[in-house]
Amino acid sequence: MEIRFTLNKKQVTAEVNADSVLIDVLRSLGCKSVKCGCETTNCGLCTVWIDGKSRLSCSVLAAGIDGHEVTTMEGVEEEAAEFGAFLAAEGAEQCGFCSPGFIMNVLAMVRELEDPDMEEIKEYLAGNLCRCTGYMGQLRAIKKYMEKRKSPVIKVREVQG
Amino acid sequence: MLTIGNYVKAKTLEEAYELNQARSSRVMGGMMWMRLGNAKVKTVIDLSGLGLDQIEESDNVIKIGAMCTLRQLEQCEALRELYGDGIAESVRHIVGVQFRNQATVGGSIYGRFGFSDVLTAFLALDTFVELYDGGTIRLSEFVKRKPDKDILLSVIVRKSRRKFRYESIRQTKTDFPVIACSVVTGMVHGKETWYFSVGARPMKAELLEKQWEIPDNASEEVIADYARQAAAEFTYGTNMRGSAGYRQHLAEVLIRREMASILAEGR
Ligand SMILES: Cc1cc2nc3c(=O)[nH]c(=O)nc-3n(C[C@H](O)[C@H](O)[C@H](O)COP(=O)(O)OP(=O)(O)OC[C@H]3O[C@@H](n4cnc5c(N)ncnc54)[C@H](O)[C@@H]3O)c2cc1C
Ligand code: FES
Ligand code: FES
Q1: Digit-coded pLDDT (tens) for B185-222
Q2: Looking at residue A150, what is its pLDDT?
């Protein structure tokens, strides 16, 4: 069957089977940032936004996406790079495999929650697993990133330096 | 691995119900559970175009459409106003925000899963389920039924002045609960009534009703004794997450804390 949907603000069509899952369709359309970690809805690596909400693309039937709006990291490249710089500055990545899903969910969080405290941040990101780092660097990066969003005069370069 | 032959986005409930009568058809909620199974599904029926994704509040009830997500439950102000943080507490440990943006109330209740936090929470409240063919029945009755080919349309909570508490224990964050308990109390037909629902025993949640008049200033020992009695009326099982004895002990502790918290708040 053919589905039409908006992918990163562009109309696309794709030929899918009734049991195709969204992650495979997105990757076939060139969105290679979307990765599969567990395939069992546990790790958060496959996070994309559907109609603006974070979802797990490993478990979304592609057929159901017809008419909807999907955003992957390719669609928010600048913002992702900006937050990614904070992750790098805090040494928050080791293998980096968890980062695409993590970044997408952090960007969803800053859109949804006004001024989350550390507990709220941890809870929002509980579905993003990282097997390398122990999360401390990521939490530091988020804190600094959010401070920067509050006072946009601080430049990313200064934070890195 | 789950395989699906056809996908149909139902245009009417009648169409969805008719399609679902075939043995190899399945209604889809958020697909989170179904996708992990090995079923060979001939037709999967998507209910997402039927307006079942709203939480509606009227004078007497809160009606939660089957396609509402767990995240909608968590963020529902009407439920928070009536029952405090209990409902949000029952779902906020389930995997993560992305997951809860997708898993549905309908799939959670229809599934009648042993580990279900959602079922444990709603069972202790004055809750009904609305079925396409089977009408509106009490959730406590629905829980005992075997899965059939009906379609769950909504979960209906009757508004009442009741106090509600929910607690669960997990070995690690976002895992299934080792035990889940809700305690509700309020006046029913002029008598103070306590409802206890214990799930993840690991069997599915069951409901216990007691007409206990407990003063707000009851001592810790008295509350502990009531909690012991309530916990002892459920049966428990052993699996990789905990033994039956451990679960009963945890249930006793959680029920005691919940009762104490309700009594401390005053009714
Ligand atoms: C990894 C994982 C961890 C989980 N952890 C927890 C946890 O800690 N606590 C907890 O409470 N739950 C947990 N769950 C269960 C989860 O919260 C949902 O209850 C579950 O996924 C079912 O919801 P769904 O919307 O995904 O339904 P689906 O998987 O789409 O459907 C489940 C079943 O219900 C049927 N169905 C769905 N909607 C309807 C309807 N309206 N009418 C009739 N039949 C219907 C389907 O045909 C299917 O048989 C977990 C699930 C997974 C996959
Ligand atoms: S790959 Fe989707 S949650 Fe792990
Ligand atoms: S950095 Fe390796 S999994 Fe997160």
Answers
A1: 999 999 999 999 999 999 999 999 999 999 999 999 99
A2: 86
Q: What is the ipTM of this complex?
A: 0.93
A18 vs B5, B96, B98: nearest CB: B5
User: Is A93 near ligand 3, meaning CB less than 6 Å away?
Assistant: yes
* Helix ranges restricted to H, chain B: 13-20, 70-74, 77-83, 86-91, 97-100, 105-111, 117-124, 139-144, 220-232, 244-265
- Each residue's pLDDT tens digit, B219-236: 999 999 999 999 999 999
Please report the domains of chain B, with CATH numbers, ordered by start residue: 2-45 (no CATH), 55-158 (3.30.465.10), 163-265 (3.30.390.50)
Residue A148, SS3 per DSSP = helix
Contact A55 B102 (CB under 8 A): yes
Residue A123 has pLDDT above 80, yes or no: yes
Rg (CA), chain A: 16
Q: Do A64 and B7 touch (CB under 8 A)?
A: yes
Domains plus CATH for chain A?
2-74 (3.10.20.30), 77-150 (1.10.150.120)
